[in-house]
Specification:
This protein is α+β, with helices and mostly antiparallel strands and 160 residues long. It has one domain: Small protein B (Small Protein B, Chain: A, Beta Barrel), CATH 2.40.280. The protein is 31% helix and 38% strand. β1 and β2 form a beta hairpin. The longest helix has 25 residues.
Length: 160
Amino acid sequence: MQKFFGMAESEQRVVISNRRARHDYEILESFEAGIALKGTEVKSIRNGNANLQDGYAIIKNGEVWLLGMHISPYEQGNINNHDPRRTRKLLLQRKQIRKLYGRISEKGLTLIPLSVYFKGPYAKIELAVCRGKKTYDKREAIAKRDAQRDISKRLKRSYS
């Protein structure tokens, strides 16, 4: 196991997650991508000062771009601090980009960021191909979750 700056390569530390995406979208497939960031953005993300709620990705000229992700300016930064809502490039292999392009060209599919984490010293993002849920699908998912919770409570009580 190779070490980077004192951390094991396999160590992953999720810093930001988009819980709303799992509620609003049906996740079909997910990918890991690198993010091209500035130094103050990395420091701000390490502090947990970012938001994925309005984020989405597009494919433009054979490259994947992340839009709508908000990274708060670094508190100890200077005048050269970053723009909080700038468009950021995602780092994927060409084969993966072609596969994503084929998938999102289908009607109703989009690319949504699910989480940002550090894998060693590198910031990574979990990107998912998603389809929007209808209101009745959301209610159905909530009902299933409540039923599962009720079953597990009853099983705990029966063993006690």
